[in-house]
Amino acid sequence: MKRRITFIQPPNAPFSPDQAVLTPDALSVTNLDAVREERLTVSYDELPDDIRTVIDQYQAVHIRWATEQSHKAPAPLASRISSGLHVFVSGEKRAEGEDALCPLLKRMFGEEVDCLSTEKSFIEPPILSKRFSSTADLYYYSVLSFATPLVDYIKDNICAKLPRWSDSSYDCIELASSLFADTFDISYDGISHVLTVSAVSSRAPGDGEWSQRVAKPEGNGNGGREGIDQVEVGLLTTEKAAEAEDIKMGGLLGVVGRDEKLKPTMFSFPSRHHALPDDATYLASFSHPKGLHPTMTLSLSPSALKEPPAPADATCALHTYLTLPSSIFGDKYQLSTTDPLFLQSHNLAALRAVFGETDLEAPDWAVDRWGSNWLLELATPENLDAVTSEWNVTIPLHLRYLPPSESGYRTIRVPWPVVFWACTAEGGTKMGINPFDRVNLGWEGLFGPRTMFYQVHPSDEDVYLYEKVTVPVLQLDEKEGLFRSKTIELGTVAVIVLGFLWVLLKLGLVSSSSGKKSKQGKTE
Amino acid sequence: MAVSIFTSPPLIITLSLALRVTLLIYGSWQDAVSPVKYTDIDYLVFTDAARYVSQGLSPYSRDTYRYTPLLAWLLVPTTWNVAGFSLFSFGKVLFAAADVVAGWLVAKCLRTHYGMDTGRAMKFACVWLLNPMVANISTRGSSEGLLGVLVAGVLWAALSRRVVVAGMLLGLGVHFKIYPFVYGVSILWWLGASTSSKDSDKDKGSNGKEKTIPQSITGFITPSRILLTLTALTTFLALNITMYTLYGNPFLQHTYLHHLTRIDHRHNFSPYSTLLYLASVDGGNGYGYRFESLAFIPQILLSVVVIPVVLAKRDLAGAMLAQTFAFVGFNKVCTSQYFLWYLIFLPFYLPNSSLLKKPQLGLLVAALWVIAQALWLHQGFRLEFLGISSFVPGLFLAGLFFYVVNCWILGILIQDAGGLSAQEQVAK
C-alpha cells in the first residue's frame, strides 16, 4: 500500500520553508493554503474480501463522487463531474454468482443508492472507439449528498480489524476521514490489479489551511496485508508552461522516513484537463414557473465564452454534459433537431450524444434505470464584445409523473451539469504520463483521446451544485384528507355508474317507444 | 330552399380548399420564422417513419410511431425532392385533401339519402368543410383527417348499399385506428332493417308472438350481413397479415398491443384519469378494488351493443354518432383529437336535432360543453405550466363534470336519433 499526499498551492501563494518540516519520523505542514490530494494505491491482495468478490467480475471499476457544495478545482485537478455518485464498470465477466455490485454499493454508500442490479439500473454509454478505453460499458449515477456512509463503512469494516489504538488503526481512520473531500475516485484496474483511491479537498476543514503531521510508514517491509509501505509527499504549485497543452509544476518532493529533506523539483506534462480563469463561470437554474416542463438555464459569464488558449491548430467548442435522474428527462427528438430557429432561441448548437432512459411517456415508477446523460454543444455569441452581462443557454426538459404524496408535491434534486470547452487538434498531443490525469468521467470518453478540455467553473454565487425542482403529484392524505384513494375510487365509480344508467335509461325510453319510423329518407 | 350562390357546391368546395391552402401557407411561414412550430409533433413522427420506410427499414424504428405502416408508406413522398423542391408537406396536403373529400361525401349522402336539396346539404356539410378546427388539425399534419374520409366513406357506402365497399373501408378503418369496429355492429344491425322493411316488424314476431331463438338467429343471418362481415374481416386480416409478415412483432406491439398495455397515467379528459394514475403506481398494489379494469364494460356495452341495437335501424348516422360519443366519453383515455371522431357525423345529426329546433337547448349544450372543457383546461394549465398540484380536487372533479355533461348530451343525441324528440314535438 502506497500513500501519496500532494499539496497544490495557488500560484504566488506565500510559502516559507518552516511551513513544511521533514524529520526522520514525519512531515509536518502548518497553515498551508493549498488543495490537497490524498492518494492511496492498494494492491489486489490487500483488499477486503467483499470488495474482491465484486471487482473480480469486471475488468475495470471506477467509483467517483463529488460534493454538492460549491468548491474550487484548480489545475492540474481541474476536471469536474456532476455532484453525486458515479459508478462505471467495464468488461463484465458474466461468470458465476449473482450481481454483487449493487448490494456492495448499498453497503458502502447507504440505502439512498437506489440500485436494483447492473442489468436493471445501469445504462450503457455509447462506445465511440474500441481502442480508446475510457468509456465504460455500464454506468450508474445516484444523487448522494454525503461521503459519510463510505467513511463509516471503511471505519467499521477495515479500520476496526486493525489492532486498536495502534498507529495503523490511527492512519486508517485518518485516511478514511480524508474522504470527507470535494471529490473522491476509487478506481480498480484488472490488468495491473491495483486499486487507487484519491480524495481531493480544496480547503482544510475549519479555517481552510492545512496543518497536518504525516508519519513515516509503520508497516515498512513487514509484507503484511495491511499497512503502508511508502509515503510520498509533494508541495507543488503551477507555473506558466511553454506549450499551450502543458502544465508546468514546481515545488518540493520527498519520501517520509527515507529522504532527509524535501528536494526541489520542476516538471511539465501535457494535460487533458485545464482550468479556465476564475471569472469563467456558469450558473445553473430553472426558470419559473417550472410546471411539468421545466427549462434549465445556464448563465455563462462573458469570460466563459472566450475561446480557450488551446494550440493554434485546435478547433474548440463549448459543451455541457447533463446528468439527469430518471424523474426528469429531455425529448431527444426535440433536442436533436437541426432547426436553426429552435437552436438559436435556446442558444444551443447541437445535441451530440444522449444515452440512458429517454422514454417520453413512462412514469417514474415504471422506470428502473437511473436516468440519462446528454452532451450538448452550446452556441457562443458571434461578437463577444457585444456580450456584457451573461449569456443564457436554455434546455427544455420534462418531468415524469411521480407517486402520490400527502402534500401533493415531491421534490427532486437535479445536479448541475458540467460545462467545458473541448478542443481537438488535427495532429493532437498524445497525452503522456500525467501524475494527475483523470479519465473515465463519462463525458470525456465521448471525445477523441487527444481532446483537451477547459473547465468552466460553477459560479460560487450559489452554495449548492444542484437545483431542487418541485414536482406536482396526486395529493393523497390517507389519514385525514378528503381525497384518499378510496374517495377517488368510489367517487369515480359512482359517477361512471350514474352516467351509464342515465344513458341506458334514455336508450330504454327510445326502445320502448313505438316510434319505429326510420328517419332514413325522411325529407324536411 | 333554393340553391343560393353562398351554398353552391363549387363555391363551398373552393372555399374549403382555400381555407386549407391558406393554413398550409401560413403554417410553412410560421415554421420558417418561429421556433414555435405550426406543424404537429406527430407529423414529424410520421415523416421520420416514412424516411425509415423509404430506406427499406421498419417504420417502428421511430419511437412512438404507433400507427399502421400504410401511413408511413403513404407519406414516402415527403422524403422526396423534386427539382430541388422538398415535398415535406405532401402529407399535410394529403390529409387536407382527405378532409375535403370527406366533406364532399357528407354532402353527397345528405342529398341522396337524407333527401336534402343541394343548398341545405352544402350548408350542413360546411359544419365539417369550413370548420376551422378540422382544417387546422389536418394542415398541422395530424392523420385524423384520413380517418374522417374513411368513416364518411363507410357511411356513404352503407347508405348506398355498396356492401362490399363498406366492408372494405370498414376493415381498412379498423386496421388504421381500431375504434371504427364499433360501426361494424351498427351497419350489420341496420342492414337487416333495410334488406326488407318487414324485418324490423319480424323481430317482434308476425303474430305478436316472440320468435324462438333459432328463428331469430337464422333471421339475423342474411346475405348482405354475411357479405359485410366477410369483406370487412378479409380486408382487416389481409392487411394485418401483410404487415405482420413485413414488420413482425413491432407492428403488433406498436399498432395494437400498445393500446391494451398502456397505463395512461397522465392527466387527460377521461373520467378515469385520476383513478388510473392511482392504479398504475406500484402496479396498483395496495390500492383498492381495481375498478379501472372493468372500465371497458360500460364503454363496450353502450357503443357496441345497446346503442347499435336500439338506434341503428332508426337512424344509422345518428347511431354511429352516439356510438362514437359513448366510445370517447367512456374511454379510459381522452384527448382533444378524439373530438374530431364525432364531428364528422354532426352534419347528419344537426338538421333534425333538438339542438337546432330548440335553440335554447342547443346553446345550453354548447355552453356546458365549452364550460366543462374550459374548467378542465384551466386545471390542466395550472398543473402543466404553473406546477400546481391540481390533480385533486381540480382535474378529478373537472374530468367527472365533463363526463356528466357528455352523458347528458349523449342522452339528447339518443333521444333525437331514436325519434323521441320528434314525437314530443308532434305531441305538442
UniProtKB/TrEMBL annotation, chain A:
GO terms for molecular function: mannosyltransferase activity. GO terms for biological process: GPI anchor biosynthetic process. Belongs to the PIGX family. It comes from the Eukaryota. Keywords: Endoplasmic reticulum, Glycoprotein, GPI-anchor biosynthesis, Membrane, Transmembrane, Transmembrane helix. InterPro entries: Pbn1 (IPR042322), PIG-X/PBN1 (IPR013233). It comes from Aspergillus ruber (strain CBS 135680). Its main location: endoplasmic reticulum. It is a single-pass membrane protein; Single-pass type III membrane protein. Coiled coil: none annotated. The chain crosses the membrane at residues 490-509. Pathway: Glycolipid biosynthesis; glycosylphosphatidylinositol-anchor biosynthesis. This is Protein PBN1. Residues 203-227 are annotated as: Disordered. Required for proper folding and/or the stability of a subset of proteins in the endoplasmic reticulum. Component of glycosylphosphatidylinositol-mannosyltransferase 1 which transfers the first of the 4 mannoses in the GPI-anchor precursors during GPI-anchor biosynthesis. Probably acts by stabilizing the mannosyltransferase GPI14.
Automatic annotation (TrEMBL), chain B:
Keywords: Endoplasmic reticulum, Glycosyltransferase, GPI-anchor biosynthesis, Membrane, Transferase, Transmembrane, Transmembrane helix. GO terms for cellular component: endoplasmic reticulum membrane; glycosylphosphatidylinositol-mannosyltransferase I complex. It is a multi-pass membrane protein. This is GPI mannosyltransferase 1. It is found in: Endoplasmic reticulum membrane. GO terms for molecular function: alpha-1,4-mannosyltransferase activity; GPI mannosyltransferase activity. The keyword ATP-binding does not apply. Belongs to the PIGM family. Pathway: Glycolipid biosynthesis; glycosylphosphatidylinositol-anchor biosynthesis. Its EC number is 2.4.1.-. Mannosyltransferase involved in glycosylphosphatidylinositol-anchor biosynthesis. Transfers the first alpha-1,4-mannose to GlcN-acyl-PI during GPI precursor assembly. Required for cell wall integrity. PANTHER family: GPI MANNOSYLTRANSFERASE 1, PIG-M MANNOSYLTRANSFERASE. It comes from Aspergillus ruber (strain CBS 135680). GO terms for biological process: GPI anchor biosynthetic process. It comes from the Eukaryota. It is an enzyme of class 2 (transferase). InterPro entries: PIG-M. The chain crosses the membrane at residues 12-29, 146-172, 178-196, 226-247, 294-312, 324-349, 361-378, 390-414.
